[in-house]
Amino acid sequence: MNHPFLDLPPLTAEHFASIERRVADLLGTRQDVVVTQGEALLPLEGCIRSGARPGSAALNVVTGPYGTTFGNWLRDCGAEVVDLEVPFDTAVTAEQVAAALAAHPRIDFVSLVHAEAATGNTNPVAEIGEAVRAHGALFMLDAVASVAAEPLPADAWGVDLCVIGAQKAMGGPAGVSAVSVSERAWERFAQNPAAPRRSYLSLLDWKERWIDGGRRALLHAPAQLEMLALEACLDRIAAEGLSAVQARHAAAAAATRAGAEALGLAPYVKRAAEAAPVATTLRVADASTVAAKALAADPQAPLAAGGGALAGEMLRVNHYGAAASPAAVRAGLTALAAALSADPAAALEAADAAWEPAAH
Ligand SMILES: *Cc1c(COP(=O)(O)O)cnc(C)c1O
């Protein structure tokens, strides 16, 4: 019996390579792009284990929970790690990064998260990239929560390793991700005896056996469904227009922020310019109870309490992918109003009024 997503013809190497080229276009990069067949933590860990080694020194910027994970991997690789932690209600500044680099001249690797879906902030990568470039360190950027939601010119920003995933603003599945790798990152990896080789975490395997071989033979059977889904994401973004997709996310963020403020809630990220377009976080006491009430009112509402210790003080409203729409934003605010036993009318009006100006 024919099934819509089983019994498909095999995905060819040529088809796989064409999807990689389209991801490169999305990132505005002329570097090699490797599509990785797993959740974005796969290329993130692969980059760190390839780039860090005993004797290396890393600056790990922590603006949310992923930074903590990166720091742990870097330490596990034997690197000396300088953690630059900033409060989760702000962005890191290029001045802070430059000062940390100046204080630790040996730093040769910098890890940074662009937008933080978990804490709702976004960092000024263009300025930070300049500081990292001036220092000469390799620059890894976790752009999982920013790709398609905000501008991400990886090459113009001097990003050596730009990691994306399909599951946020691209509106796709979590099982596929990608990384762009600069020439000097490849060189660093090749010189690292501890870099994963003949391993699922290995990026060098893809360089040596796939890219250098002219992209003719895949390393293993490709994750066909995920590749087709990634291609469908790229088609859908192309049909809408990348800048329109980004504008829709910016509008969802502005509308959610305005609506929440009309409900008397304070944005967790104080400055709107530092708020991520994929998720709006709010400072709410006993957030897990409020989230439970909101979800009882509407089980589909795109919101959740903050993770871990943040559950007591942070409520997160997601608005990425299909949820970056006026209807989803309104649904989230309506559920939130129900949880607070408030009339949603003023919040919905404020959200509607904020949408248009932010979408242009
Ligand atoms: C979503 C996200 C990831 C992927 O992690 P999940 O926990 O699987 O969602 C990685 N980095 C950032 C910044 C993300 O927002």
Automatic annotation (TrEMBL):
GO MF, one annotated term: alanine-glyoxylate transaminase activity
A GO biological-process term: glycine biosynthetic process, by transamination of glyoxylate
Residues with N6-(pyridoxal phosphate)lysine modification: 168
Cofactor names: pyridoxal 5'-phosphate
Binding residues annotated for substrate, in chain numbering: 316
Protein family (similarity comment): Belongs to the class-V pyridoxal-phosphate-dependent aminotransferase family.
Protein name: Aspartate aminotransferase
Phylogenetic lineage: Bacteria, Bacillati, Actinomycetota, Actinomycetes, Kitasatosporales
